[in-house]
Amino acid sequence: MPDPGRRALLSGRVKPGPAPIRPPWTDEARIAIACDGCAACRDACPEAIIRIGDGGYPVVDFLAGNGACTFCGDCARACPADVFGHIGLPAWSLAVSVDDGKCLPAKGIHCETCRDSCDMQAIRFPPRLGGPPVPIVSSADCSGCGACLSHCPTGALSAAYSRETMSP
Known about the structure:
iron, cytoplasm, NapF, Ferredoxin-type protein NapF, electron transport, 2 domains
């Protein structure tokens, strides 16, 4: 697997970006050891959010396809290698964060699109004085499905691994 730090340096980026989000029930170690880049997981994803990224390995792109993972397990069932763990376990440990510089409510414009798209009700908008409520994401309630990311009109939300995803 290519070294992301070296790849960033050679491509002109001084600081490497966040780790790519891998399909559910996988992690970097499983991908590096077992993935052959066949793209079966991508082809099987009914939401069309899996694409093949750098190095030929699958990544989740919440801005593609239907924009959210339904945790259906089709990607795991389609994979001929031992890349995916048990689909009964938590899929991953993603933390969603809000960029106040892009968030409309933080700029005084009323918007609750992320909350409306969150089936888990992990995004709350507590009242605040002096402006519209701003989103607060409950990591305990968030499944990491990505629906909020794909619906945000300004791209103010992002997801990254909050801790090393448990290897299933």
